[in-house]
Structures are given as structure tokens and as C-alpha cells.
Amino acid sequence: MMSRVFLAHVLASLCLLSLAANPRLGWGQGDAEFAPRAKGTPLTNATYLVDFDAPSGIAHWVHYALLASECQGPAERDDAFRADPRIPGCPDHNAYKASGYDRGHLKPAADSKASPPTMRNSFLMTNMAPQTPNLNRGIWKELEEAVRGWAWTYGEVHVTCGPSVETYDWLASGVRVPSSFWKVVMRTAPDTACLAFVFPNAERVPGDLHHYLVSVDDLESKVGMDLFPALPDGTERRVESELPAGVWAQGAPASALPAAPTSSSSGNTSPSTAPVQCMGIAKSTGQRCRQTTRDPSGYCRYHAPKEAP
User: Fold this and answer.
1) Residues of each domain in the chain carrying CATH 3.40.570.10
2) What tens digit of pLDDT does each residue of 162-178 get?
3) Which positions ≥6 away from 290 have C-beta within 8 Å?
4) Confidence label for 305 from pLDDT (cuts 50, 70 and 90)
5) What is each CA distance from 98 to 102, 110, 146, 232, in whole angstroms?
6) Do 43 and 56 contact (CB within 8 A), yes or no?
């Protein structure tokens, strides 16, 4: 009996060593091509991958390849939020109740229209994280719609997103509330390029998408992971060091994408004029600017984006 237990431990250790040596072992193909290394419990779904952190009740990250064809399909949103049976003690549909936070999708339901099972899988609680209503229904949703536009424009994009390592709070159910959320989008045609974003998980998230752009290198240093380990070294160095001047153009037909959110449909109002800390980076310290601003862009006068001539 003891020898069998010992053998089981040995085999488990060998599996973990194999996974460490090849982080994509155990993942399916396709979505796994540019997946980061797993730090927690790897979960494979039909159209997305999850690296789940059981102690915090949310994912380290979610990764998927989004094809243009997946942006439309027969499946309708069903709001079937539920615990993931693969995770013992997984948060359930009531885990965020009366917390003031939304159950924010990491892989959006609108990216899961290929079939009803695919749509249903997008409502597993391992794909959720606590987001403020202003973030989830505002600029995070705007970015989700932009990603679908880029999938239509370029045929396919690779998306990785997740929470910050910094914690703002904990829900009564034991779920961690991150201080911010990030998302990085990579295209491989007509060239290889990336856009990386970081948004505060705050009651007010003013400004436009380009205000929250960061380089992939900066994002990797914040989250402590290599986001695209499968890229050739030269390509990786180039695309991850660049800070794009703006977001990519979209070529999707208007009928192919959801309508842009409005104040009446999303429940959002215009940004508050209360002072907030500037989102800019001070050149002298390399840290976030300590100035406050009332400008809707979220930037002080020293870091306000320059208008095109």
C-alpha cells in the first residue's frame, strides 16, 4: 500500500516537472500557441484557457485566439453564471452578491457565439473577476468591442488578460478584488504587433483607450510573467518594447459588431470632475505622476496627450 502511494507521489512530481519544462503541456492546441506559462491550476476550455488561482478565487490570466468567425454565431447570451466543477470550492453565482462589484468576464460572452455550449462555458466563474460597474460596463466593454473589430480586420488576434497582483479588497465570500485589470492583444498579420492596456478597477475610469496604453515590457514587469514566450526572441524584443502611439484601426462592417455603449444603455454617466491622480509617468522617477487633475482624460497638463497638428 505504501509503495503505491509513494509511486503516485513520484508520478505526480514527474508530471509537474514536465509541465515546468514545457509550460504548454496539457493545453489544447490552437488557443495554446501563444499562451503564457501557468502559475496556478491550468484549465482547458473549448475556446479559451485559464490559469486559475484557487486561493484568491480568480484567474491569474485567461488566454484565447479570437477568429473573425467567432464574433458572430447562433448562440445568445444566457447569463448562466455557475461554479466550475473542476475547482473544489470554486466561487459560485452568489459569490459577488451585494458586493457592489460586477461578475466581469475575462473572455467576453460576445466572443463566444460559435455555439450554445461555447457561450455557456464563458459563464464559468473561473472566467470571472470582481470589476466595478464603471469599468466592466464602460471602457473594458469598449476594449472588448475593439478586439472583435480587430479580429474582423486581421482575421485573428491573440488575447491575454487578467487582474493585477495588487489587491484592493476581499469580498465576504473570500474572492480577491484586484486594484486593476490588464489586457494585451497581439496580431500576426500583416505584421506582428501588440497593444497592452492597464485600467484601474475604480469607481471612475475616465478617458479613452489610448490613455491606458502601456508597453508589453512594462506590463510584464507589473504582473511578473512572460506573456508571449512562444514568439521568436527578436520579434518578442521588438513588439514588447514598443509603446504604440494609438490603437489600431478597425475594418469590420458596422453590422458585424455590437453597437457602442451609450449612457442610457450602460447606466454610465459622464466622468466626475472630482480630482484624480494623473495617469502619466514622470520622466524623473519612472513612476506614476503625483499631480492631480480634473481633466476627463485623466492626465495633468504636463502629461496631456498632444493634439495632432
Assistant:
1) 17-270
2) 999 999 999 999 999 99
3) 277, 278, 282
4) low
5) 10, 25, 30, 46
6) no
CATH match for 17-270 among 3.20.20.20, 1.20.120.450, 3.40.570.10, 3.30.230.10:
3.40.570.10
CA gap 160, 201 in Å, rounded = 18
Question: For strand 193-200 and strand 180-187, is the pairing parallel, antiparallel, or unpaired?
Answer: antiparallel
The three cell numbers locating residue 179: 486594484
CA distances from 180 to 108, 111, 197, 306 (A): 18, 22, 10, 26
C-alpha distances in Å from residue 150, one per residue of 83, 105, 199: 31, 19, 20
Rg (CA), the chain: 20
Q: Which three cell numbers stand for residue 59?
A: 484567474
Cell, residue 1: 500500500
Prediction pTM value: 0.73
SS3 label, residue 155: coil
